[in-house]
UniProtKB/TrEMBL annotation:
Keywords: Transferase. This is Glycosyl transferase CAP10 domain-containing protein. It comes from the Bacteria. Transmembrane segments: none annotated.
Amino acid sequence: MNALYYAKSFIYNALPSFFFRWKYGQLKRFEKTCNQKELDTRLDYYFKVQNKYPIPKEATAVKDVKRGKGTAYFLDLKEFLHYFTKEARFAYYFGDDTNVNPYPTLFKARPIRNGNENSILFKLNKRRHFKWVNDTIPYTEKKDMMVWRGGAYRALRREMIEKIWDHPLCNVGQTNKPVEDMPWQKEHLPIEEQLKYKIIFCPEGNDVATNLKWVMSSNSLCFMPKPRYETWFMEGTLKPGVHYVEVNAPYDDLGEKIEYYSKHTDEAQEIIKNANQHVARFQDEMMEDLLCLKVLERYAECSGQENEIKFRA
């Protein structure tokens, strides 16, 4: 699967310039008919820098952007660099770091707090993060339990798994590699098996919870602590009790809330409906591509590189 994905991506990036000129025109025509409020709201959310700024000395010219260790990140950015000249320069970071640089930089994730403006969100590593599911199991027919599988390499997840791994209403476990001799080390559980549970836990790891997107596209209910980081998915706009159920870090309210939402199915399904509606904002491929282009266009314009945009509508 990975090989096929990478092969398609490399072939796409090898297409001739006239294809990207055509694609640019297609996106610009779509811009005239799309939901302008949605476009503007999301663009302003991703790109918070208000003022003009000099090109950061750390910025890389399009012609010099290299794959490095982040192949998926590289491909996701490269897909939209075709719309700019080879001399256009962008500062970017490939990886899970959530540091806020002193200069505007394209990041996959940033902390949810004031003063994060220099971290400009871009849709990076999207194959891993932007997965949706077609869940055919009604909420009322799922198990009255919470499920989770994932890596527990950092302190936050280690503390979490140690506290809840043996909870009678939970089927949770770490899938660390190499395997650790811990009672909470468990086998991988496929997504289709996790969808049989009413509640799926979405704890943050290096940054955001990787499973959050597919969970919110399902008929299961998302449980998680209040998010600290956000990506293109705009986790900072999610509201507890509206899009997900918030649990506290000590997890002493976990059993009570699992029991409550297992019984109060109408309330649970209303939250799930809201979560599904949030997911729908990211399922229009033309809007997604247009927003990626607009983020880079705004970066070029704000850094005085208007002439480095290769095509014009």
